[in-house]
Each structure stands twice: as structure tokens, then as C-alpha cells.
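In response to a reviewer's request, we include the raw inputs and outputs for one of the modeled complexes. The two entities were modeled together in a single run.
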Amino acid sequence: MGGIDTGDTAYVLGCAALVMLMTPGLAFFYGGMVRARSVLNMMMMSLVSLGVIGLIWVLFGFSLVFGDSHAGLIGGFEFAGLRQVDVVVGGVPLQAFAMFQLMFAVITGALLSGAIADRARFWPWTLFVAAWTVVVYLPLAHWIFSIDGAVSEHGGWLANTLGALDFAGGTAVEINSGASALALALVLGKRPGWPHEPMRPHNLPAVLMGAGLLWFGWFGFNAGSALTAGAVASNAFVTTMTASAAAVLSWLVLEHRLDGRPTSLGGASAAVAGLVGITPACGYVDTFGALLIGLVAGLVCQLAIRLKYRLGYDDSLDVVAIHGVGGVTGLALLGLVSTHAVNPAGRDGLFYGGGFGLLGVQAVAIGVAAAWAFGLSALLAWIIRRTIGFRVPEHVEAGGIDESEHAESAYEYSPLHTTGRGSGLLSRHTEPAEEHR
Amino acid sequence: MKLITGIVKPFALGDVKTALERLGVLGMTVSEVQGFGRQKGHTEVYRGAEYAVDFVPKVRVEVVVDDAIADRVVDALVDAARTGKIGDGKVWVTHVEQVVRVRTGERGPDAL
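The model returned the following C-alpha cells for the whole complex.
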């Protein structure tokens, strides 16, 4: 053991814990947005992502992403099991870096669940997200996150051969989740009554709390991706805050213009849209670049939500519009506003005299990530649908998926307790308090 | 005895309660209900989508009163709930065969 930088190690471990909090935050963000009868199923899809993706990552996932590359396509098995207590990469123990990256894999999988609210059976979802992690996420993460010489001598082809810039995960996390979510929404189909029946959020304070936790954790996600507590991390923190702040304002103003009111759901979505947009760019742009990305993300993502009603796909909680379109926005604008001045590892974009080169590279990365994620996710979801089935029957969906899949209901307000198995009127009967007799 | 049922706009409940108490009505039952009358529902825009809201929220007020004051209670309820706009609601009157106070067993108007 040696060469450990204790400051950087503390920083990476702290950031890993911050990013972990994003998945429970996402559960609240999504859970509040669905109807009261399916909130537990929604939150359970995030919880089980922590379980199943966490295990995959420790057992072999990290190794396939950051092990020495085979032709730039996939890593090896040399870190399987994560028992390398004495390996240090860039001043930080390999295990600390591996936990930081684990949280990225978990939240990306959990993000997909927003596309299939109210209707996905629990175990088929669990199987899907496990298969999706191995088939879709691990290779894509290897291509963009594994830098030559960082953990292993040879890294992935998008980052090293092509030279695409993605500081914290615009491709592997954002475009990946958006394109995969679109595939899921198309394969599972829309909910009965959508889009004519109102399916409004049942608990907006939960949505806002979730958005707050996501925003908080995102500082670990973005600034933490510097992997060292220094100037690049601090700049990423500044740009992350700038973009999300700008997105909140641009979204709410546009929403007021279009619908007549600034809504809390809009504000919560706006913060996330800004954070998504700045994710690939946070370490490569300055404040003005972040401002542009945030403003544009707040407008474009909101307009993209309207597209789903025109095109007729029931992406229930707008994963495509916010993560897919937001990710494309950030990666593409990075080709314009990237500046070498804030990060020696960066590159100048079109606005800083770098020409169209970076813009072209970014476009290729966007196309590759979207096509890979969409195609393979559609295939995996289709196989599950055709074999064990993915959706609950229509009458179960109408009655509430929480009851049918989990034997629970989120809110036991009725004094009769007529919901929940084994909780009928008699079993919950209690004597009235003395003063009412 | 008469059961007077009023379906009124939610914000009218306070005025209805005050008006009925002034007439000496001693008890009432209220519940939140949803429905539509001749006005049907309306449309709302939310997150960029237009929805048809078929069932409009209302409050149902139920009072059982002696025959002698039934007409005055109906008038007071209608006056208190009226705005003159579509969707003010309905009031109807039903005959009540018997009323029993659970605690004492009193029957008829004495139980009101």
C-alpha cells in the first residue's frame, strides 16, 4: 500500500455516499409523481436496483468496466469480487473509486423505471434491470468512463479512440437511461386511459423532496467525478449550481407562458433537467457555458414532454424528455462551449476557436449511446414480455399495483382498513376511547 | 320528518352551515363527493396535456329536520349556496320514516 492521498480518498468516499442518496431521492421524486395506488411499486423499483445492481457491480461489473480493455469494447475480470485492498489509482484506493462508480450504475438503472409507472410486475422488472446492467450499461460505461492509464492501461473506445468528452455521464447515464426508457415505454405499451384520463401526481411535496435530494447528491455526482478535491472539482460544483439554477427559471417562465401557471412539478423537473444537461459538461465549461446549457435544458426538455402526447408513447414520468433530451442537449452544447481554460484535460469547442471537430465527435457519441441503449433495451424488454410477461393484467392495474404486487398500500387513512391483505374491518377493530362512550 | 340533501360547491359549505344553524338545525352530516350535472365536467391543462375532468368536486350536506321547518331549511340552504353560476348544485327532500337516538332509544322528532 502506498501513494494514497487521504484528502482525495475522503473526498471520493464522501461523494460516493452523496451519489448513493440520489437513488432514494429518485424513489421519492418518482413515487410522488404516480397515483396513490402505485407509489410503493414505483419506489420498490429503485430499492431493488440498489440491491441487484449493487451486487452485480461488486461481483464483476466494476471489473468489466474498468479492467484492462479488450479492443476498447469491454474490460476484463481482473477486479472481479473487488477484494483488491492494496490497489491505488490516482492517489485513491481502487475500492473507493469502485464504490463511487457503483452508485452511478445503480441510479442509471433506477432511472428507467419512470417510463413504466403503474404497470410493471416486480420480478420481471428486477430481471430486466439486472440483464440491462450487464448487457447495456457495463459496455457503454466502459467505452466512455474507462480512460487509458487511469485504472487500467487500456480504456474504452469512445473516450480514448474517438475522444468524446463526457465529464460525469451524459452518455452512459443520461442518454443511456433516456433511450432505454423509450424502448421500455414502447415495448410495455401505454396505460389504459392514457393520455385522456388525468394521471396527476398524488404527492407533490414528495416530488419536491426527491428533487432536493437529487440536487444535493448531484454535487457528489458531478464535482466528485473530478476524483480529486481541487480546482476542477470546484469549477464543476460552480457550473452544476449555475446550470440547475438557470434551468429552474427558464422552465418556469416558459411553463407560465404555455400553460398559464408555474407548477411545482415543473420546478422539480426543471432542476433535474438542468442537472442532466450540465452533467457531461460540468468539468469542461465555465460559468457562462453552464448558464447557456441550463437555460436551454429548461426549455428543450419541457418542449420534449409535449412531444410524447403527439407521438403517443406513455413515458409516464418523462425519462426520455428529461434525461434523454437533456443529455443530448448537454453533450451537444459541450461541442460549442467547452473550454481548455478550466481543465487541462479538456478541449476547446466551436465558440472557443476549436472548430467543428469536437461537435462532430460529440454527435457520434450521442448517436452511438442512443442506438446501443435503445436497441438492446428493446430486445431485452421484448424477450421478457414474450416469456414471463412484463405487465400486470389490466384489471390489476385499475385496482392498484401496490396491492397486487406487494400486498401493501402506502396510505392507510380509512378507519375501515379495507385495503391490504389480512387487514379487514375485524382485525383492526379497536374500542373507542373512554370519553366517547 | 324530512331528509334534506344538498349538493353544493365546496366553498359554500361555511355559509350553508351558518344559515342552517340560525334556523335551529341541531346536526348535519357532510361528505366530499364528486359528480356531474347538466354542466358536465371541464378540461384542465397540466404538464402540457389537456385532460377532461368528468367528475367535479362537491360537498354533500345532509340534515334531518322536523316537517314544520323543512321548507324554511330548504330555502335557507338554497340561498346560502347560490352564486347564480353554472354548477351551484342541487337540493332534494325525502320523507323519513323513523329516527332513533342510539344512546337513549328516543324515537321520532324527539330523537332529532
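As requested, we also summarize the result in words. Confidence is low (pLDDT under 50) at residues 420-437 of chain A. Chain A is about 65% helix and 0% strand.
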